[in-house]
Amino acid sequence: MEHVIVAPKKASTLQTVGYWVATGLVLFELLYGASWDFNWVNKGYVQTVMTHLNYPSFLPAMLGAAKLSAALVLLAPRLPVLKEWAYAGLTFLFGGAVASHLAAGDGMNVTVWPLAFGALVLASWWLRPANRRVAAVTAAEWRPDAG
Questions:
Q1: For residues 128 and 19, is the Cβ–Cβ distance under 8 A?
Q2: Helix axis angle, 80-103 relative to 59-75, nearest 10°?
Q3: Which residues of the chain register pLDDT less than 50?
Q4: Cα gap 36→4, rounded to integer Å
């Protein structure tokens, strides 16, 4: 069987701009949100929200650390597997925020922001350039003993 190597398709300028706009907005939210989670900004607000949602008081610090970690991974060059994990984690983060607020009886005025940032995470993931993706392996290339 003959293998043909195909160079990755170069991203269009529109795709590149869309990726960086979506990713920049996500990064802003992660860094700003972490500053709230760590109580550096608007002291007490996040604890009030956590109490409303019946979450433990230590959760914001965990979420802040996760947001900072995800932001660093998304900014770093290469690291495609870690980027996949960061995107998955952010999908759970924003999806969990929506589900938590809906379960607490909050309306769309509260869930619109996590929905919007969740959509930006998905846009960033979808538009990411080839060097930020995990390389696809075809079934013919995969071997279970390859380690």
A1: yes
A2: 140
A3: 6-7
A4: 51
